[in-house]
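Expect chain and fold; thus:
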Amino acid sequence: MRIMTVTPTDVVYEVHSADATSLTTLQAECGGPVEAISLTADRVMWVHEDGKSLGQPFNRRATAALKAAGRAFPGDWIAGTAVITGRKGPETTSLTDEQLARTYQDLAIR
């Protein structure tokens, strides 16, 4: 399984593991309890649910992806590390090659 992690310091990396989409992995990558933000019908961004109130840093690339998906409210932004996964119906899934390519584009990479 494959997910993408986006840090506030512009480090972007893929996580490949059998349990990449588990709640435990998502929480470990984001540093605590997570909330899901629907980017598209087939992709979800996961962020620390208290990232802003904890003073986590602005995440420029994750905010760009949120805006590219048309999901950002005026003045909205992502704080802390974000993780992007696939989605099929209610299930959290691994990112496909196509989803990964769109995510890199949304993050303004490549």
DSSP finds three helices and six strands in the chain. The radius of gyration is 12 Å. The longest strand covers residues 34-40.
